[in-house]
Structure formats: structure tokens, C-alpha cells
Batch of 2 targets.
Target 1
Amino acid sequence: MRFVVSRFNLILYFSLSLIWHHSAIQAACNITPVLQGQYLMDNPGNMLARPDGKMLFVIDDLAGNINIIDTQEKAIVNAIPIGDAPTALAYDGSRQRLYVSDYFTGTVYIVDVSGDDPQAFKLLKEQKVSEAALGALVYDPATDRVFVSTFKPQDPDTILVLDAENLATASDDLGGDQFSEGISDMLVHNGKLYISFEESNRVGIYDITKTTPELIDTIAVTGTQPTDLSVSSDENLLYVANTGSNTLTRIDLLDNTLFDSVQDMNALSAPRGLAYFDQYVWVANQSGSNLAQYDIHVKGMLPNACYGLSGQRPKHLLAVPQMKQLYVAHSNGVDVVIAQGMDVVCNGCTKNGQVLQAASGARFELNIEGGMGDFNISLSSGGTAARMNDRSWQITAPQPEGNHSLVIYDGDNNNRFLAFTLKVGEGSGSGSSNGDASGNATSLNFIGTDHYKVGDFVRIQLHEAFEASRFETVDLWVAVQIPPQFGGNFFFRKPSRLGLADFAPAASEPFRASLRSSDTDVLHNILEMELPPGMGGAYTFFALYVEEGKNPLLDDLINIQKSDLVMQQIILDNE
């Protein structure tokens, strides 16, 4: 890929890869403790959710309960007493029931969780299946069998294979020399059973499509004490948390071979729980009592962890994508993590990505999702935003047709912002701004085609003009937001040096500084490149005049801006 400015060339692919890898991408998260009410949790553990995401089940092994969480209310709504020390659980969707293993009694319990009334959930059956202690448990819907691990001092561990209907023995136990190794976790994926052996530092793989499951292979992990397992469906990789060595192992699910190792001592500290969600692998760090993220596009750990859990030593994670939530079990209970940034639901306007469209002067309602609050909304060119409650606003669109800016600021989240282009009426030319709230006559216009195919030459230009008193000076900031699949982060246009265009992940300096009216009315090349494959998505460019010496990400933007925020979105194809 070529990055062309004047007579100089840059390798943009290398530059952007370097920027993405080292950028301060935040694992920003909004953490809310699950309300326990009368159902106090002593030691929450293994979790799973119903396929609709409305109900979540959490084991409490000390209390001997299965706690039921309403994911919309984020509260425990019932607790079902189960055995002496429930250890693991699995969900049978066809029968709408749970299977629960009990460590001390060697018993598997069946719990009816059909319907939407958690008070009606009840114990259906208990079946003693072994004299040994029971551990990890999984259900395979393809063969309608339950697999449960056993532990007995001085004896090799085994895995029982049970008929899901009545918990009768379905085939010979799985065992052998490799089972003298401490079974930590089990996972079923595409007809195979994956087992982490905590003591021998291996992962076992069984073909469970056979009447009697057959061992395929055991793989040595790139670390010590492998515990939790999680599948990244977008990569066809199995992630293994190596708690003892502060690493992750990745196994190729297509040929069941070792893929590589993830090592980052700054991001991983006694990793235990894993969950794949929204193209990130989330990691529960027990030593750091935080959550880290592996970005499958950046192919590395993100540098900023998610702190603020309401308890210590998180050890279990569960993604509930239907609710856009991540659940964390720790020493004090369970937290809900809103694992996304802000977004809006628009009633009365049309929303397409970062573009809202409404008629001139129309009124519509915006409801803010995610973020932390307290929120503020800035709207250009005479539009108004009236607060209805903490997350709902009534917007009156500007009268002039064309493109306008609508920016939502999240005050309690370091004033992070979410910007939209508000298209009023039918017209929707290049992003532009004329005038601002201070009365200055300003003009910022992005110039360029809004759709490019692989091989096209991409050129984005910015025309600027600023007219004010001869004593007033401003700074011009320019940024681009990359697509969500590449992290969704902002990169800021640095001043041109030697004719080379340069973007940086931190807002450290403006594109142009200390401008007077006489310094403007010029045209800048913001981006020029030949589009290669693999960079497809929506890229949004931003431009803004602010008070000289101020930083739009660190200072109160509403008070320092000297123009409307101008946005222009372009679409790059992958082919």
C-alpha cells in the first residue's frame, strides 16, 4: 500500500499497523454490581445463560445454590438449593433444563428452567453417578450426552459419559494415563471435547461423534497451569488461560494443532476466566483483579485494562451478546460489564451508522445506550437538545438543509464523546461548517468521494477559512475514526513535516496551531493513498477549530470550540 504526499511515499499499512498496536485503546467499561437483595452470594462460580439471554444462572458452591439473574433487571430473582457443593453446570436447550455436578456427593442434579417465571424453576431429579468427587461438566446436544469429570485422590481422573435423558451410563468412561493430570475445564465444539489438564500443562481433544469417544491428540500448552477454555468463532481458535505462567495459548480448531502463544506481562496476571465477545477475547486477571482484552484484529493485548470491579480475584466470565453484557464472578458477587461504548436509539429519525437523518426543524427522541453519564449534547447550526431524563433527549433539527454535527459527551467517562452527522433534508454533500455559536464566520469543508473500491486512489482534502477579529487565534484539529472491526479508535492528523502526512493515536498536538484569519482560506491534503484489500469499512473524518492552546479531548469542548464539528464519512471496500 502506498501513502502518497507530494513526492514522498509511506507504507501506510505498516504505519497503521504500528499505530493500532501501540495506541492507547481503552478497555472502557461500565461496571454495575448485580443486585443480590435477599439472595446473598458466598462464593459465586461457574455461569451460563439461556439462549435468549434473559436469564443467567450462577453457581454458589459455599451456599449450595443456583442463583438466577434477570439480565434486564441486573438482579438475582431466585436461588435454588442444590446439593452440598455445586461445581459446574450445563444447559440443555431442547428440554430447557440444567445439569449440575456436585463435588462432594458424586451427584448430578437436573433442574427445570422452562418458562419465564424464575420462581417456577425447580429441581427435577438427582442421580448419584460416582463415588468420586465431580468437577467440570458439559452437555453435547448433537449426541444428547452429558460429560462430567471425576476426581479421587491417588486415582486417575476420569470423565463419565451419561445419557442426558436419565443420566444412565452411555458409554465407557474416558480415562488413561493422560487423566492423571488434573482436569480443570471442558468445552464442546464441532463434535469434539476439549479438556484442560491443569497439572500436566496439556489440552486433550476427543472425537465425541463416536459411540465410544476416541482420543485425537493431547497438545502441550505454551505455559503452565492451563485452566479456562474459550472459542473465538471468528478466528476458529481455542484460547487457553495459562494461570501459572501469565500467558494464553491459542489452538487451531481446523486441524487441532498449536497455533501460537500470547505473552504480555503488563496485561496478563494469573489469567483465569475467558470469554469471547464482540471480536475481543476478555480475560479475568486474578492477581490484578481486572479485565484485559485480546483484540483479534490488532492481534495483541490492549494496553489499558478494565478496572473497578466490586470484588477481588475474578475467576469466571460469561458473555451474553443478546444483552450486550459481560458477567464477571468474583469474591464479592457478580458484576455486569457493559462491554461497549456509547450508541443511540433514535425515535423519529433515521439512523445509519454514525449518520442521523431528519427533516428540517423536525423533533425526534434520542436514547443513549452504554457510557456512564452525566451526558451533554452539542448540536450545530441552531438545533436544540432538551434533556428528558438521564439518557433521553428531545432533539430539534436545525432549519438549514445539509450536514450538521451532533456530539454526545460522557462527563463521568473522561468526557469521551460520540459524534454523528445529522443530515437535514434531502441534501447531503461533503461535510461542512459555516459559522459557529460565537459569531465567527468560519468555513471547514471536507472534499472527496464518499465510496472507494480496491485499487482506487483515495484523496480526502480539507478546505478551511476562519474570519474573526485580528487579535483572536485558533487551533485546527483533524482526526479520523477507524471502523469498529479495527478497534473504532481515533487517530489525529499531525502537522505536516517535509510534506509527509502523519496520523497519531494520541491527541498531543493540533494539525495547525495559532491561526489568524490571514493564515486560513487554504486547501490541505488530509489523506492520499491507493486502496489495498483488507481495509474495508466506514472511516469518519472530523475537523474543528478550538481556542488556541486547548485540547478537545482534555478540555471542556463546549466552551473552547470555535466552529461546529465537521464530519465526513467514507466507505472503503475490501475488493
Note: The longest strand covers residues 457-467.
Target 2
Amino acid sequence: MRTICFILSSIQSIHSIKRIDEFVEQGYDVKVFGFNREDSPQTSYDRFDIEIIGTFSSEMPYHKRLPLLWKGIRKAKSKTRGLNCLWYYFGLDVALLGRLINISKPYIYEEADLTYTYINNSLLKYIFRILDKNTIKKSFKTVLTSDGFVWFLFGNKHPKNVSIITNRLLKSTLSVPHETKHVLDMEHLVFGFLGGARFESVYYFIKTVVKHFPQHQVVVYGTIDEKFSERYAVLEKYDNFAFYGRFSNPTELPKIYAGIDLVISTYDICYDNVKHAEPNKLYEAVYFETPIIVTEGTFLASKVAKYGIGYAVDALDEKAIVQFIEGLTKTSLNECMTNCRKIDKMRCINDNQTFFDELKTLMVSL
């Protein structure tokens, strides 16, 4: 049986750690290499070892990072001599260099973010998009985390070697007791944000609610990006804003969602990565029967509209936000919650057995 040899662009990536855990659960032998981001908090992993093959700051420019990536991946190659490897690359930068170093070697490619869409140079962005499509087409198997990414890259043509594995809730969520949702009070709505507060549109939406609707409340759980820390600190002076910091996932999710009426997921759309992403807030909202607020014009907004489970708004338009909140009714909120209940809860849980069954069949041909 082949050993799955993973290369992580960041050992702090919780997403990557979860994926490797799944391979371990499926009985695969794994060898894991990764790059340490010295300015990022450490992530725990106890089911496998990670050999660090390079260290750099997340702020290091890519042209300075490339030699470190090249050296690290070459080191990983030398460490696996004698192993029958199926390489697994997380991220386009690692995949491109991995393909060059391990020429003609089969690989699985996973892309959770279209990182090159943040490049300001249109020509460079176009080139990386072509390279991304080629990396997918030449892969033994590719994992994308959003149907929106497939549409962005290939339109209606879905490559046969691509599997969509969205960011759903942990299986352990099923064992956490549900909590009764608080009574809906239209005179005191509670808006909640869970995760990393790093988008301008999230901050602007929250600020607008806090300043224009003192009768309502906004609660934030998670972390606040350093560049927004001062602005959120100003909001803490308002009685209707509260920041509670980090939370335990999934054990604290039922309690948090039981105490909020709407969940905020108004991510920026100025970059294609965010515009086409499918964040796990969609599945949390459905699972905990909480209407979701998203940014209009996104792939997420189309899904929310399809299932009738929330609202889309221009999160950078103060007037639009005010009109949206003033137009909320108990009937529409209850209708969204009812539509959430209609969706099978198991569709919200991370269960990728179909992917692993398919992979097992395909690996026979290697």
C-alpha cells in the first residue's frame, strides 16, 4: 500500500490537520512534512508526527519564500527515498514546486484558497490561474473546498478528477447536546459572528448595527485580526457590543448559537477567493437553525437564496444595512429557521467516506 506523503504550506493549518486525521482514520500510512509560520499560533496534532522542513513569517513576500519552499520540498523528497509515495500537496505554491521536484510522480492536490486572486497584477493573476488549472488537470486527484471554485476555474465543465469537500461540521458535533434557542424578540435581536474577524465588510456590518440599533446586540466569538483590533476596541465602548474571544469547537457551538438570532457571514467580495468560497458558517447556520446574513453577489449568497435560509446584503453600504435590519420581520426569520429544519442535519456533517471509497478504487491503478 502506498504511503501518503503530505506537504503542508503551513503546519498551523487546522484544515490540513483535519484532512490528514481523516487519512489516518481510514488506515493509511502517512508521512507528513510542513512549513512552520513563526508568527502564527501553534495547532495541536496528536495522531501523526510532522517534520518541519522550513520556517518563515506569513508576512514574507513570495519571491523570498520560494527558495525556502524549494529547499524544504527537496528535503522531503530525500527523506522519503525507498517509500512508495503518493504525494499530497496543500496549496498551489507547494504543488507547483512539488511537481517540479517530483517529476512524473503522481500527486493529490488540495486547494482551500485561491491565494493568487489576491495578487494585484492582472497578468500574474491570469498566469497563476492557468497554472492552477493545469495542476488540477495533471493531478491524480484534486480536492476543492467549494463548488464555487470549480465554477471560477472551469465554468460548467467539472473535471472528472476533482472532488468537492466543503468545510462542514466535525463529526464530534453530533455528540454535543443541543441547547434550546432563546425566545425571538424583535425588539432585541442578537447578531453573532464566529471565527476570525479579518474582513472590512464584517467590521462595517457590525459597526453599523452597533451604532444605529442600540436596542439590538452584536456578539463576536473568535479572534480579531491585528489590523482591526483598534477599531473593534472602539466598539467595545458600546453597551450593545461584546467580544468573548476564542471558543471551543464544537463543544461551545450549541450554547453560542442558542443565544443568537442571526449569524453574520458578510465576507468581502473584492477578491475572487472569498467571492467563490463556501465557508462552514453555511453549515453551522443550517445545523443550529439560525438565519445567516451573507454578502450579496457571492457564491454563498446564491446557496442561501436557493435554500431560503437567510439574507444577502451589501455589507459595505450603510444605508443598505440599515434598511435591511429595519425590514426584518418575525415571519421572515421564522421562515428561515423552518427552512433550516427541512435540511437533513447529516448534510452539515463532515463525512467524506464517498471520497475515500473512490480514492481506494483509483489507487489500484497506480
Note: The first helix runs from residue 14 to 25.
